[in-house]
Structure formats: C-alpha cells, structure tokens
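Hey, I was hoping to borrow your eyes for a little while. A protein chain has come my way and I'm curious about its shape. Take your time with it, there's no hurry, and the full record follows here:
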Amino acid sequence: MKEGWEAVIGMEIHAQLATETKIFCACAANFGDEPNANTCPVCLGLPGALPVLNEKVVELGAKAALSLGLNVNETSIFARKNYFYPDLPKGYQISQFDEPICGEGFLDILVEGKGAKRIGIQRIHMEEDAGKSMHLASTTLVNLNRAGVLCRYRGEKVSVKLCVANRSKPMLLQLLFPTPQRPRRPVCPI
C-alpha cells in the first residue's frame, strides 16, 4: 500500500434473527429444510397476499439496538425496494431505509497492543431476504425457504488494521442472536 495511505472499509453485516417464522408471514424460518417447503402466497409474492410484520423481529431488533447503545426510533417505516433477482419472486424487497428501527450507536472492541477502540454503528434496519439460487452445470435451482428472513447492521467506516488486529474476538452476531435449535450460518469475526 502507498505510503501515507490507509485502507478504510465500511461493513454491512446481515444476520438471520432467531425467530420461528419469517418477517412478514407465518412460514417457518428453519435452516436446512427441504427446498421450497417453507413458502406461502406472501413470500412468493402472489396477487392479493398481504404481509403482516412479525412482532418477534421487532423485539429482537430493539434488543440488538439497546445492547449496542443505539437509539431506538419511535417510528420506523418499511418501503418497497424494486429490483430484479431470479430468487426474489415479488420483484421487490420490503426494507427500511429513510426511517430504520434504530441508529447511531457503537461497539467497543479491544485491539491488541492498542487498547479499546470504539466502532460506530450507523443503523440497524429490518428487511426480508431474497431466496437462494444454486447454479449447476446446465440449470439453476431456486430455493425460497429463506426468502423473508433478515436483519442488517451498517457500521461506520473502520480502518482495516483494526479489523485485522481484532480477528480473535468473539463473533458479535452469534452472541446477540444464538440459534441453538438449528445450525448457524457462518459469520465473520469483527
């Protein structure tokens, strides 16, 4: 790297909350079930199907916010983010942008040889996830089981040196959202 330059990276962490059902419908949020076993008219985007917000998602989002010192907003708004993904059957994603559930917090970490470092967290917002495409030699398969389950953390930009020095620290999301009833998705340490 050029002398006098410092690599600075912004991180966005996606986490599946430990809920039994998806964010906008009553389908199971089980990891590892048979493909497309956990779908309904809402997560498939069929005409006339209306989403209903899962209260447990809001509760876990607020708990995560408080544990990270974020301000929980009195009002948060969901909106449609329109774009095409082969594994997003509705053609849009229900997400938060302008008014997320919370914002402006931090996480204190220990950096070897440097002591404590405060990492800013810009926001946590809730949104549904797309499905999963599996590309094979001659075809593509789509599994929509996970469509509808997600929470996003967006941090402030952080120096790469600090992230690398802190490789051995516990995985934040596994501490906040333990899911003993099903296998955990891999999460990168901070």
About this structure: Residues 41 and 48 are 8 Å apart (CA to CA). The longest helix spans residues 55-67. The radius of gyration is 18 Å.
